[in-house]
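note to self: dont lose this again. the chain is below, predicted strucutre after it. 429 aa total, dont forget to put it in the shared folder this time
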Amino acid sequence: MNHFLRKASFSSSRNSIFRIIAIGTAGSGLLYLNGNLDLKPDVKLSIPALLHENLSFQGRPFFVSSEHWHVGNFPLLLPRVSSAPAGDITKEAPVAVGDGAKPSCGCLGRDTIANAAAKVAPAVVNLAVPQEFYGFSSGRSMGSGTIIDANGTILTCAHVVVDHHGRRVTSKGKVEVTLQDGRTFEGTVVNADMHSDIAIVKIRSRTPLPAAKLGSSSKLRPGDWVIAVGCPLSLQNTVTAGIVSCVDRKSSDLGLGGMRREYLQTDCAINDGNSGGPLVNIDGEIVGVNVMRVLNADGLGFSVPIDSVSKIIEHFKKSGRVVRPWLGLKMLDLNEMIIAQLKERDARFPDVDKGILVPMVTPGSPADHAGFRPGDVVIEFDGKPVQSIKEIIEIMDDRIGKPIKVVVKRANNEVVKLTVIPEEANPEM
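---
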């Protein structure tokens, strides 16, 4: 293209210049040509709004004529900022908070991160919990939280407001809450679930309280921009930015025992005191709750996905605690590569293209009583085809003591129908 354009600058043919300009501007602007041959050739280029905002013409006017044509100084090729299809470029982004130019849909503008932080920051609070040991004060536990409704409901981490080892609320459930605007309140721990590390604190105010909006973590993809807001090391109103590194990091990947959990992994800077603070998308919506980081490592932080948190909150409202059914199965999601490898090892492995493998059955568990065996492949659960553990968890929801029909495939393609009755999981698991 550059070679082609250099030739154009030395061409004496008026028609050739018009042809080159038309090719170079196709798809990026509208070309207007004065076709009267008795007059001096006149070419005008109209730039679409999207390119108008992002192009820098170094002081040159948006009018280009063949009399003052300088191809070498005119930027014709632009890097793409968004993966959005061309048909979406006219869509506008949500209204910005700052005074900067509004970026087009999918584009990361100069004020994108600042605007997202500005939307959620007023609702982010600092939490301080006095620590007691045999009646003696032993300091304070510091953390962050987010007000999620006008009634003063604060979302935070359980380990910030609960004695993790004793599984009990410290300081009789009282928490000192400080807002961004300097107001302080005494909060009360209403609910706490140690398994998910999610807790709810309540404050009361006679004046309006800012509240953040809950988003959706299911829409996140690796590489999406996110923001961590909180009070690391008691430094209130701290904002850090990064990207989503993984959307379904399993607890087993982190060496955490107990029941299966999934986290969002991010490279946002998360330090002591960030726990309980929000992970926010570029629309200023909460997509996760920051819970932990890896020591002696940079860029390894983890958050509970907001979709999981929303379900936990519903459990709190419904029964005051999180009810989790337990089957007693160790499970593994199957894909084509794993299936091919298992069939290489044992030709009797069932012919399936999806499903959930059962490597182990806990003795005396509901699954053991139902007749599950190691090596079973679950293909139907409660009458629905399944191919992931997440689907099984969603189907079970909080069904305790209710029979569930399961179809499994065994060696040599034996199909077996089982009935399992889930029990409530031990909170200590």
